[in-house]
Specification:
Layout: H1 26-34, H2 66-167, H3 187-207, H4 224-251, H5 254-264, H6 271-279, H7 282-285, H8 287-298, H9 312-325, H10 329-352, H11 368-393, H12 400-407, H13 409-413, H14 415-452, H15 466-486, H16 490-532, H17 541-591, H18 597-604, H19 609-637, H20 658-677, H21 680-702, H22 709-726, H23 732-744, H24 766-773, H25 784-793
GO cellular component, one term: exocyst
InterPro entries: Sec10-like, Sec10_HB, Sec10_N
Pfam families: Sec10_HB, Sec10_N
Amino acid sequence: MPTAGDPAAALPLSLDLEDFKGDFSFDALFGSLVDELLPEYRGDDDGAPPPPPPVLGAAPPVFPAVDELLGLFKHSCKELVDLRRQIDKRLQNLKKEVAVQDAKHRKTLGELEKGVDGLFDSFARLDSRISSVGQTAAKIGDHLQSAESQRETASQTIDLIKYLMEFNSTPGDLMELSPLFSDDSRVAEAASIAQKLRSFAEEDAGRHGVPSAVGSANASRGLEVAVANLQEYCNELENRLLARFDAASQRRELSTMAECAKILSQFNRGTSAMQHYVATRPMFIDVEIMNTDIQVVLGDEGLQADSDNIADDTVKREATTITAVFPSPNEVMAILVQRVLEQRVTTILDRLLIKPSLASLPPLEEGGLLQYLRVLAVAYDKTKVLAKELQSIGCGDLDIEGLTESIYVAHKDEYTEFEQASLRQLYQSKIGVLRAEAKQQSESAGSIGRAKGASLTTPPQQQISVTVVTEFIRWNEEAISRCTLLFSQPTTVAANVRSIFACLLDQVSQYLTEGLDRARDGLNDAATQRDKFSIGASVSRRVAAAAASAQDAAATAGEISFKFFMIAVQRCASSVAILQQYFSNTISRLLLPVDGAHPSACEDMGAVSVVEAAAHKGLLQCIDTVMAEVERLLSSEQKATDYRSPDDGAAPDHRPTNACIRIVAYLSRVLEVAFSALEGLNKQSFLTELGNRLHKGLLNHWQKFTFSPSGGLRLKRDITEYGEFVRSFNAPSIDEKFELLGIMANVFIVAPESLSSLFEGTPSIRKDAVRFIQLRDDYKTAKIASMLNSITAE
C-alpha cells in the first residue's frame, strides 16, 4: 500500500480480481484511475475553474500532474503483479486438483471397461446357450412334426386299408361301403380317397404284370375285386359330378360349377369335365345357331365383311365363365378354341369353299375359278383375323397358327395349279371377246365397204392394246397378292410367284406375238396384191391403166399396213416396258430374299424374245414394203429424159426430178409414224437398214440411165434431196454414203480430162465411180474408156 509521503498515497482505488471478470474494459479501468487527478480533461466537468495564468518571467510546466500520474501508474503496476501471482498460484492449485481428478477418472474408466468386457462375455455365453436351446427345440419340433405326420399317415393308411378292404369285399357290390362314399356333402373327400385307392391298386397290379383294364379277371393277387369296384365307383362318381355340373350350368350357378370342376380335376386332370363342357356348348350342337352363322357369313351378296366375328363374341362370353369355373382355364380355352376352328369354322368353309374341278372349270358367267380363289383368299384372311382374336382372348398352349393352316391345307396344296388355270381361263375369255369384237367390226366394215364400192385397202381391224396387257398384269398382280397372303415361307412364296409370273409372260408373249403376226399379215397381203398386179412392158394401154390403178391401191394398202405395224410395234414396246416395271417393282421384291430365285426369273423374262423376233421380222417386211414402193415410183416416175435432155444446151433445170420429189414425199409421209413409234436401238437399226437399202436401190436404179452434164446436175440435185432427207435418220454412216454419192455425181459434170482428179481425195469410191463414168453419154465419143484404164491402173 502507498505511504503518506508517497505521491501515490492518495490513490483513488485499489485493483481487485473482480475488476477483471465479466465485460472487462481497459478504457474504463484507466479512466477510473486518472479521473481524480485530471478533472479538467473530463468532458462532463464544464464548471471547473480554468488553470491559473502563468507567472511572468517563468517557464510554464508542460504537464503539471505528471508526477502524480507516474506514482499512480507504478503503484498500479505493483498491484497488477501481485494479482498475477495470485492467479498463477490458483492455476497451480487447480492443475493439481485436475490431475488428481483425472487419475481417479481414468481408474474408474478402466474398471468400467473390465466390467463391460465381462458383461459382453456373459452375453455371448447366453446367446450361445439360447441358440443351442433353440436348435434343440427346433429338432424337437421337427421330430414332433414328423411324428405327427407319421401318425396322420398311419391313420390315413389305416383308413385307406379299411376302405380298400371294403372295395375288395364283393365284386360289383358298392352298397356296403362307408357312408363317406355316399355322402354328397363329402364328395370331394370321397373322390380324393377313391383316386388314391385306385392308383395304389393299379400300381400294385402293374408290379405283378397284370393289366389294369376295367374288369380284368387276372388282376393283382387279392386286389382284382378292388380294382374293378374302384373303377366302377369312380365312373359312377364322375358321372354324378358331371350331372351336377350340367344342372348347375343350366342354372348358371358358377360356384357349384367351380366346386364340381375342382373335384372332377382329380379324374384324369379334369379332361372329361373340360371336354364335356365344351361339347355341350350350344354353338356346337344347336343346328339353328350353326345355320345362322352360315347365313351371316354368306349373306345375300356373298362373303360379308364382318363374318370374322361369328365366334368372337361367343368365345369371349365363354372365356369369362371358364375363368370363373375351371381351375385350369387355359386348358379349357385351348379345347374350346380348337373346337371352334375345327368344327364351327370348318363347317362354314365347307359350305363356302366348294373346290372346283380342274378338268371341268366353272364358267366365267358364274365367276369361274377366279371366284373360288377370291373367296379362298378372303376366307383365309378372315380366319387368320379370327385366330388372332381368339389368341388374344386366350387359348393356352394351343398352336393356333398351325391349326389354322391345317384347315386350309387341302386348298393350298393345289393353289398354284388353280391360280394358273384361272389366269388361263381369263386370258382365253378375253381373247375370245377381242376376236368376237374384231370379227364384228370386220363384218361391219366389209358391209359398209361393199355398199360404197370400197377397194382392197381396208386395214386390219384388231390392233394390239396396251390396256389389254395392263389388264393381264392386273390379273397377275391380284394372283400374286393372294399368293403372298396364303403363304409366308420365302422359298414357297418365291416358287409360287415364279409359276404365276410365268403365266403372265406366256400371256403377254402370245398376245403380242399374235398381234404382230396379224400386223405382218397385212404387210403380206399388201405384198401379194403388189406382186399380183405387176405387169410387163408389152401390154395394152387399157390393161396398163387398170394395173396402175391396182398397183396404186396395193401401195395404199402397203402404206396403211406399214403404219398399222409401226403402231403395233410401239404398243408392244409400251407393253413390254410396263411388264418390266411390274417385274422390278413387285416380282423382284418377292424373289430377292431367296438365293437363285431372282436370276432364274430374269432368265424367264427371256420369253419375251419371241416378241422381239416377231417385231424384227415385221420391221424387215416394212423395209421391203417401203423399198417396193420406192422402186415402183422410180420405175413409173423416172424418165430417161430426166438425166439426158434432147436440148441439153438449154439452161439446166435445178429442180429435183419428179421421181425424187414423189419418193421423198412418200418416205416423209410413211416414216412419220416410224419416227414416233420406234425408240432407241430399234429406231437406229431400222433407219440404218432402210438407209442402206435406199442407197443400194438408188445405185442400182441409176445404173439404167445415161447422163449428160446437165443430167448430172439434176442427179446431183436429186442426191442432195435424198441426202437431206436421210439426215433425219441420225445415222452418220448413211450420211457419209450419200455424201459420197454427191461426189460421184461429179463424174457426169466435169470434163473427161478432169476425171482422174475426182478420186484423189476419196479413193474409196473409185470402184463405184468407174461404173458411173461408163454412164456418161460421151463415154464412147470422148474415148473415156482409155482414161479409165489408166485410172484403174493407178
